[in-house]
Amino acid sequence: MSTRQGTGTATAHRVVILGAGYAGMAAAIQLAARVKRRKDVQVTLVNAQDRFTERMRLHMTATGQRLAELSIPQLLEGTGAQFVRGWVTAVDANAKTVRIDDDRVLAYDTLVYGLGGVADTSAVPGAEDHAYTLSSTQDAELLANRLARLGSGTVVVAGSGLTGIESAAEIAERHPELNVVLLGRQEPGSAMAPKPKAYLHAALDRLGVQVRAGVEVVKVLPDAVQLAGGENVAADAVLWTSGTRVSPLAAAAGLDVDQHGRIVTDAALRSVSHPEVYAIGDAAAIRQGYGLMHGTCQGGMPTGVHAALSIDRVLRGRRPKPFRFGYYHTPVSLGRGDAVVQFTRPDDSPRRICLTGRMAVRYKETVTASPWPTYGRMKKMPASGAFWPRGGRFTRNPEAK
Q1: pLDDT, tens digit, for every residue of 281-328?
Q2: pLDDT tens digit string along 173-197?
Q3: N or C: which end of the chain has fewer CB within 10 A?
Q4: CA distances, 50 to each of 14, 232, 297 (Å)
Q5: If DSSP codes are grouped into helix, strand and coil, which group holds residue 352?
């Protein structure tokens, strides 16, 4: 570990973690727990708010359901990590500084970049102005207020991925007076095996969700969405779940990014252009043997833990190990009383085994509720967070050193 001389004394190595999502929280708690007894390491976590956002439950918030208030500072208590509340407005990779709310500057020696993705409303005209998103708790609450006032009418959910499916099912169940239309290029559950996909479609049909696959929204209007080909689908509210985008701060800082703005990493999750910067979660373009990882909580938390383990190893004069991760499931809620769980191979391709109905509901709830107690365990036993499926042959990257 390098130290700098201030007034004749060594200065603590400053680790700044940006973003307290699933990955950022895992990185902060894992690292803080491991360096707790060291006086020469300072860990700081930066986030725009002090409430932890359960992104896996935002479709519940969007239908007016109350979630637990999860305090980030409270969870950090006893770890020695500092918490800074504020918006990250700039990163200077050359000066190794982060600007907060445009009026504060934090210096770092090591940066963990975990500013996750938000709904991409920039790709389609009108989406930014007329569509609701699930990018934050506040966004979800805005939609909940709108749905509560409608009384009747049509809600269009644009995007047939997992977020769109869960949102459409939740809205249809909580607001049976509304007509829910799920639009997307692909058939819902297209990556699933035949049995769980059929179950998913039957559940959406039971809830009254009208599914239209093979369509593309090209414009969002104040009272409709326009499809490729010119057809308009009337809508009293539009929820946009079609695609995500990451913060442009990494690219603006001069870090090497891919075509989606994600930081390109080496095998240890370090930026290939700035090795003092680690990228985790949705902010990182992480290559495994099967290709690039896609953003999920099951993969995001291990990236945060691995970044912490890598930093700890470097601080102790050792080389970081390559990161490996294999997927193992795709749980999908279908309202509060139904769900389907597709188990997968490490490359995320479907296995034949699945869960449905009440058993799937219990499984999905266990998964959704697991991050918070996992963070709590890591405070006391850091090693407890360092176990996840490595993926075997599926994740071997011949280019990894």
Answers
A1: 999 999 999 999 987 889 999 999 999 999 999 999 999 999 999 999
A2: 999 999 999 999 999 999 999 999 9
A3: C
A4: 21, 41, 20
A5: strand
Q: Which two tokens stand for residue 217?
A: 């929204």
Model confidence pLDDT, tens digit, residues 96-106: 999 999 899 99
Q: How many helices (H) and strands (E) does the chain have?
A: 11, 24
pTM for the predicted model, two decimal places: 0.93
Residue 243 has pLDDT above 90, yes or no: no
Instruction: Give the residue ranges of DSSP H helices in 21-104.
Output: 22-34, 58-61, 72-76
- At residue 110, what is the residue type? T
Per-residue pLDDT band for 399 (boundaries 50, 70, 90) equals low
Longest CA pairwise span in the chain (Å):
72
Cα–Cα–Cα angle for 313, 266, 29, rounded to 5 degrees: 45
Task: Give residues with Cβ within 8 angstroms of 231, minimum separation 6.
Answer: none
105 three-class SS: strand
pLDDT in tens, 19-51: 999 999 999 999 999 999 899 999 999 999 999
Radius of gyration of the chain (CA): 22
Q: Phi first, then psi: what are they for 251, rounded to 5°?
A: -65, -40
SS3 157: strand
DSSP secondary structure letter of residue 9: S
| Under 8 Å between Cβ of 27 and 114 | yes
